[in-house]
Amino acid sequence: MPGLVSLVLADARFPGGGHVHSGGLEEAVSRGLASDVASLEGFLLGRLRTAGLVAAGFAAASAAVSANCPSSGTSRARPPLTSPSSAVSGDRRARWAELDAELEARTPSLAQREASRAQGRGTLRAVQAAWPSPVLDGLVAVHPRPHHPLLVGAVCGAAGEPADEAARCVAYLAISGPASAAVRLLGLDPFAVNAVLVRLGPALEAVVAEAVSAAEGPPSDLPAPSAPVLDLMAQAHVHHHRERVRLFVS
Question: PANTHER family given for it (predicted)?
Answer without folding.
Answer: UREASE ACCESSORY PROTEIN F
